[in-house]
Amino acid sequence: MKTNGNNTGRGLLAGLCFCLFMLLPLCPIRAEIIYVTSESGRTVGEYNAATGAAINAPLISGLGYPVGLAISGNDLYVGSWDNTVGKYDATTGAAINASFITGLSSPVSLALSGNDLFVASYGGGTIGQYNALTGAAINASLITGMSTPIGIATSGNSLFVSNLYSNTIGKYDATTGAAINASFISGVSSPFGIALSGNDLYVAIYGRNSIGQYNATTGAPINTSLVSGLKGPFGIAVSGNDLFVANYSGGTVGKYNATTGGVISASLISGLVTPTGIAIPKSVPETSTWVMGFLALAAMVILVRHNARRRLLAGLFVAMSVIWPIGAVQAEIIYVSNESSGTVGEYDAATGAAINSSLVSGLPGPHGIALSGNDLYVGKSNNTIGKYDATTGATINASFISGVSSPYGVATSGNDLFVANVNFHTIGEYNAFTGVAINTPLVSGLYSPIGIAVWGNNLFVANWYGGTIGQYDATTGAAINVSLISGLTNPSYIAVSGNSLYVSSRTSGLIGQYNATTGATINASFISGLNGPFGLAITGNDLFVANYFGGTIGKYDATTGAVINASLVSGLHSPVGIAVAIPETSTWVMGFLALGAMVLLVRHTRASVQG
After folding, report:
1. Which among 271, 379, 396, 586 could bridge 368 via Cys, Cβ 3.0 to 4.6 Å?
2. Confidence of residue 303 (pLDDT cuts 50, 70, 90)
3. Percentages helix, strand, coil for the chain, rounded to the nearest 5?
4. So what's the pLDDT on residue 54?
């Protein structure tokens, strides 16, 4: 019996290794990655953004002198002097379509915004707009008559373009191509690559071998020599507080502090051949994938010695039962605040099934909610904002922010938390980590603001009694258009996706759809016949609506307004706010493997113990 017990234990350990080893390719252990084009080397290389170590220096080779670079998910877009934009697999480097877009004129810079791919044609003096999935032209001449455009970047509905020979940065409407200010920033000595982070616009100034920092709203200089002493700065990229610079003449990629310009590593990557473009994926693998990697490495020795088939099967289930909580197997999740019951519930966004209908309970009249990472913010009728763990519902700080007034609207953007104070008629801005006030009031003189939404540097506010949607600068609070949309009946909550602005009206039972740039009506009765529509949330092409009087969450097609499920979640108690969380794909894979392992366990547990 002692021997059998030892064998069983060894088998379980072996099973753990097997499970982790099989999952490892699905949850690759990677630090943040940086992709770099080498113009003369005709390659795109892949590197570790923390250490600069090469992951795959010639990830893609044999290109036609690549310059521009952009990434979305696992799709890597490369613009080359051979007048094409190619599309490649960012993991393997395999060509998806080497001639994804053709007929261009020196596409030296690329930028992505949702499903739109913008291409700067250096030779043609144009900016073209294309479908990032198909390559089809949306508007090949979105902007024309430019002076050698060489760098582009997007933020919300604004498109920034650096013009090499005119020494300017222009700002344009990304939907229409109309100039907002063709000389938004002037007197820049040979501007090349540009990058945005929050309200900061970074410019590679090739003529002065420096990086300049400007206000993305006003164009005012913040620091025109944030980084100096470079060697032909070409492409730049920002990730978090790290600023990466490709030095064309120096053959390096340097890494700097994006706030101070301080050197982190001037030669993070060296030995490159005329590096030009840089791209960094927006998402970094969850911590759980790192944990799995280390466990797999530690367990490999056990696999070599103990690989009995039956014990592996039993061990497989044990391994999954350990890893599953780490990976948090979930579909998209909806969080809903129930005003009458004093709870925040958690539901499956696909099926509406309750995950935990009382994730957070005992709240005094919860209203607006917002999600940032694993932090859930809840506005309450006792005039506080509480902060809770979005996974467990545990209280982090029940009075994270106090002294607000009927906080029905809550929204996050980066490190900023915005709060709509209905009775103060203001919008306040706070630090989302500490709760410290940044600006209270950021915006004042409103008319009972309820819903708020942040889109790029635009802050949209629904004025319940004013019947309007106002648009403000999210950094300064300055009014852009206090009546962007007017004539509404008690506008309640707002959601923004692409260039569409959705507005609920609890009184009229409608969801209206409007142009987020101009305020023009797309469809004032986009969805009708609702029962007190209040909170809104959108993810992908799904629009979720909280029906305050009906006690339901409905799900609709965000393009057509068609009903997907009018009562996706029912039995709620005066639902007000909605927030949606989207987990990493790897957690789905783990869930399916766990289910398979359970079946195997039923069949082989007895054999494992006796063997």
Report:
1. 379
2. very low
3. 15, 50, 35
4. 93
Question: In angstroms, rounded to a whole number, what is the distance separating the alpha carbons of residues 106 and 304?
Answer: 54
The neighbour count for residue 535, using CB atoms within 10 Å, is: 30
> Would you give the DSSP letter of residue 213?
E
> Which tokens sit at 189?
């000595």
**Torsion angles phi and psi, residue 10, rounded to 5:** -65, -40
Residues 309 and 5: beta-carbon distance below 8 Å? no
pLDDT of residue 14: 52
Q: Smallest Cα–Cα separation from 315: which of 610, 10, 2, 24?
A: 10
In angstroms, the CA 106 to CA 10 distance is 61
Ramachandran assignment for 153, one of left (phi > 0), alpha (psi -120 to 50 degrees), beta (any other): beta
Confidence class for position 4, pLDDT limits 50, 70, 90: low
Average the pLDDT over 20-34 and give the result. 57
Closest CA to 117 of 168, 174, 61: 174
Strands (E), 39-178: 43-48, 54-60, 66-72, 75-80, 85-89, 95-101, 107-113, 116-121, 126-131, 137-143, 149-155, 158-163, 168-173
Rounded Cα distance between 202 and 524, Å, is 39
Report residue 260's pLDDT band, with 50, 70 and 90 as the boundaries: very high
In this structure, the chain runs to a length of 611
Round to whole Å and give the CA distance between 10 and 286: 29
pLDDT in tens, 197-248: 988 999 999 989 999 999 999 999 999 999 999 999 999 999 989 999 999 9
For residue 597, count other CB atoms closer than 10 A to its CB: 21
Q: 609 φ, ψ to 5°?
A: -70, -40
343-348: strand order across its sheet: 354-360, 343-348, 333-338, 575-581
291 φ, ψ to 5°?
-60, -45
DSSP type of residue 332:
-
Hey, how many other C-beta atoms are within 10 angstroms of the C-beta on 462? 30
